[in-house]
């Protein structure tokens, strides 16, 4: 890594400071004003800035001037990132922390930001603009109005103005003005995320008119994709480190692991991203890659999170340093998740799991357990319960999955923690009822569905796991299943 600036000077991130910063860190070496504003991204959180924005930054560094990002926010709390990026000329610092070294660079691919406040008109106009070729989104697993079990659109008239409401308004304006095709690209951790985004978009459009829904079906593509990069929430300590060690003032840097991965279908209705110039896997069959990531990385994170929280851990790497928790996650991935997965070209599952254990254990990232404890109602149905169903079908093991779910139940019943989970009240109510009747938690059919709620084998495994957890604590419950190495 380059040296640091004069320790008497701390430079703020801005277009004017890039030349001075370039003596110590990697900065955009391209003319940001010459980039076409071709991507609108809804949901500019840490993950987007550590993932898609870095790929687009790579393209700009390779001389591709047709691609840059206009960030967009549709929720009230997006106002903060909009204001921070505006003050920093939409630049930010990416800190990539490995176990042995740290890399720092400034990302320049976001060139503007639109925040929907009282009126969505500016964002609608941006989506309709002929320069816009892709609308991408990172709106979390719970942000799609699609039923997890049936896969059907679920209209929510109580929450107008969401991502798909604004997206469809933009598509309607696009159709009315010039009719150019467009790609809508989900970057969320959802199985067949493109298909789910299509269902949500066309379902929302059909509320306006069948003609609009038919136009979208014909002129808009929704490629499936798989995205991967562990990106914890930025902490005050991260901001302080950047200021004290690198003498860079950034109000909202992003910290991530060095690893990143993107697998995407080559299905673009508008101009096509030059994927051949990026470290991207392009495939016609994305399902094996999606399953691998969701059932191993995402499920591993969620299954670790609640047990680690109950055991008093605050960081993922610290939890992974505990022999019992490390053994639990490792055994879960090899014994229950791996056996349900198909082959994915270029991926050795044993190597992949081994790399995940290393990534989870990376002390440089400092990933927060609290971050992983958000949205359990949205995550478990997508990440873990498909494994449970597959194992039940084949009379396989589900005890480790059951313990992870028991951990979630106990966490909900005993920990008063903030959550973005839209079903939090119902989740807590079922967890509270489980104090008197352990199986009552499985009556949370929005998560478990009628099949798992009515499964005798699953109920027995869950009730036994919850009894072990409540009777002896996390370490004892794990020891009853697994002997740490």
Automatic annotation (TrEMBL):
Keywords, comma-separated and alphabetical: NAD, Oxidoreductase
Mannitol dehydrogenase N-terminal domain segment(s): 38-276
Oxidoreductase as UniProt keyword: yes
Enzyme Commission number(s) of this protein: 1.1.1.17
InterPro entries: 6-PGluconate_DH-like_C_sf, 6PGD_dom2, Mannitol_DH, Mannitol_DH/Oxidoreductase, Mannitol_DH_C, Mannitol_DH_CS, Mannitol_DH_N, NAD(P)-bd_dom_sf
Listed GO MF terms: mannitol-1-phosphate 5-dehydrogenase activity
Family: Belongs to the mannitol dehydrogenase family.
Gene3D superfamilies, alphabetized: N-(1-d-carboxylethyl)-l-norvaline Dehydrogenase, domain 2 (1.10.1040.10), NAD(P)-binding Rossmann-like Domain (3.40.50.720)
Enzyme class per UniProt: oxidoreductase
SUPFAM superfamilies in alphabetical order: 6-phosphogluconate dehydrogenase C-terminal domain-like, NAD(P)-binding Rossmann-fold domains
Domain Mannitol dehydrogenase C-terminal intervals: 285-469
Protein name per the record: Mannitol-1-phosphate 5-dehydrogenase
Natural source organism: Ilumatobacter coccineus (strain NBRC 103263 / KCTC 29153 / YM16-304)
Swiss-Prot/TrEMBL catalytic activity: D-mannitol 1-phosphate + NAD(+) = beta-D-fructose 6-phosphate + NADH + H(+)
Keyword Transcription regulation listed: no
GO terms classed as biological process: mannitol metabolic process
PANTHER family, alphabetized: MANNITOL DEHYDROGENASE 2-RELATED, MANNITOL DEHYDROGENASE DSF1-RELATED
């Amino acid at each position: 890594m380059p040296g640091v600036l004069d320790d008497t000077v701390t430079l703020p991130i801005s277009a004017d400071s890039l030349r001075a910063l370039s003596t110590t860190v990697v900065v955009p070496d391209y003319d940001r004003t010459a980039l076409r504003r071709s991507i609108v991204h809804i949901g500019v959180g840490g993950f987007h800035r550590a993932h898609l924005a870095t790929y687009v930054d790579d393209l700009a560094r390779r001389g591709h001037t047709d691609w840059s990002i206009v960030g967009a926010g549709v929720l009230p709390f997006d106002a903060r990132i909009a204001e921070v990026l505006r003050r920093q000329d939409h630049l930010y610092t990416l800190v990539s922390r490995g176990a042995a070294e740290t890399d720092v660079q400034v990302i320049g691919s976001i060139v503007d930001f639109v925040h929907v406040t009282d009126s969505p008109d500016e964002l609608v106009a941006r989506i309709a603009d002929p320069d816009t070729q892709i609308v991408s989104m990172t709106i979390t697993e719970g942000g799609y109005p699609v039923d997890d079990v049936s896969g059907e659109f679920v209209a929510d008239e109580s929450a107008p103005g969401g991502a798909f409401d604004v997206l469809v308004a933009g598509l309607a304006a696009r159709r009315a003005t010039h009719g150019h095709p467009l790609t809508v690209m989900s970057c969320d951790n959802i199985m067949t995320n493109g298909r789910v985004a299509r269902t949500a978009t066309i379902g929302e459009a059909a509320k306006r008119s069948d003609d609009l829904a038919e136009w979208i079906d014909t002129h808009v593509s929704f490629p499936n994709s798989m995205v991967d990069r562990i990106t914890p929430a930025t902490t005050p300590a991260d901001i302080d480190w950047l200021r004290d060690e690198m003498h860079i003032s950034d109000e909202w840097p992003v910290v991530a692991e060095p690893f990143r991965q993107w697998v995407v279908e080559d299905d673009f209705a508008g101009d096509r991203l030059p994927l051949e110039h990026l470290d991207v896997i392009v495939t016609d069959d994305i399902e094996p890659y999606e399953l691998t990531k969701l059932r191993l990385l995402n499920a591993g994170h969620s299954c670790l999170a609640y047990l680690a929280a109950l055991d008093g851990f605050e960081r993922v790497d610290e939890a992974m340093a505990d022999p019992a928790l490390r053994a639990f996650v490792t055994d879960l991935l090899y014994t229950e998740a791996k056996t349900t997965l198909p082959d994915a070209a270029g991926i050795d599952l044993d190597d992949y799991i081994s790399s995940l254990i290393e990534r989870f254990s990376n002390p440089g990232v400092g990933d927060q357990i609290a971050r992983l404890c958000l949205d359990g109602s949205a995550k478990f149905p997508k990440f873990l319960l498909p494994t449970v169903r597959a194992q039940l079908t084949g009379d396989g093991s589900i005890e480790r999955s059951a313990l992870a779910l028991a951990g979630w139940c106990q966490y909900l019943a005993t920990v008063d923690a903030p959550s973005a989970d839209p079903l939090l009240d119902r989740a807590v109510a079922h967890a509270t009822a489980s104090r008197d009747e352990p199986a009552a938690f499985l009556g949370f059919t929005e998560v478990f569905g009628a099949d798992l709620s009515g499964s005798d084998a699953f109920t027995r495994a869950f009730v036994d796991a919850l009894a072990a957890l409540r009777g002896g604590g996390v370490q004892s419950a794990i020891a009853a299943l697994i002997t740490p190495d």
